[in-house]
């Protein structure tokens, strides 16, 4: 396993095929500054190259998930002069968008645990994760428009998560809502009492780990292709993934374990890594 990137504003813990990634600016409710964004991008690159990690858990230190972009830093950047073809605001925003895109397509199963504040980019992370658990007491929303800017990079993921009609309503009013509403809107798949969220997280992680890691990765890849490939190409892509899994060590182990009425033993094998 490659060494983790050095991080100041992310707290990273790796154990037993799981990465716990904590947003770690608690004095700023874990708002995203340029350095935190760069650190997140570096960790995403590390995950792409680290198949031994099966589950990624996003969480915030200090009782808040992520309050969105660092407004003070962004306001100061607005005074920077555009020199030739260099626009630091656009470049930072684009870099964040590329990290979001890579994160969405990671082979690992990603889980967001949303407590406290989750605004702007924080809500974006909640919509990016494969699975989101939200505490009843969480506070969420897209307040960008109330600040005179747009939720540029998170908007596509919010639309994909909850649909265009609801996404427009939330973005164009800047509505703030609690965990129960986030669950009702479809941002989160699990709703937890604040005190029970740790137990719910461990239950969800255990459910994920019962699945084959390559099977989960292939399932994500298939689902994320929906709507982007012509129908017949989608059929071929899905069939190729299925055949690869069925012939691979993981598929053989899973089906043999079923026949033998035992739990499968999942391993990242060289055969599974191919493709």
Strand order within the widest beta sheet: 1-2-3-4-6-9
Straight-line N-to-C gap: 19 Å
Strand element count:
9
The global form is globular
What Rg, in angstroms, do the CA atoms define? Answer: 20 Å
Quaternary: single chain
Helix content: 40-55%
Order of helices and strands: EEHEHHEEHEEHHEHEHHHHH
Largest sheet: 6 strands, mixed
H/I helix tally: 12
- Residue fraction in strands: 5-15%
Mean pLDDT: 93
Structural class by secondary-structure content: alpha/beta
- Low-confidence runs: 269-275
Describe this entry's structure for a reader.
By secondary structure, the chain is of the alpha/beta class. The longest helix is centred in the middle third of the chain and has 17 residues, at 88-104. It is built from 12 helices and 9 strands. Residues 269-275 have low confidence and may be disordered. Strands 1-2-3-4-6-9 form a 6-stranded mixed sheet, with helices on both faces. Strands 5-7-8 form a 3-stranded mixed sheet. Helix content is 47%, strand content 15%. A hairpin with a 2-residue loop joins β1 and β2 (18-23).
Brief overview, please?
This protein has helices at 34-48, 71-77, 88-104, 121-128, 155-162, 164-173, 179-185, 197-209, 213-225, 231-247, 249-259, 270-273, and strands at residues 10-15, 18-23, 55-60, 109-114, 117-119, 131-135, 139-141, 176-178, 190-192. It is an alpha/beta fold and 275 residues long. A six-stranded mixed beta sheet has the order 1-2-3-4-6-9, with helices on both faces. Strands 5-7-8 form a three-stranded mixed beta sheet.
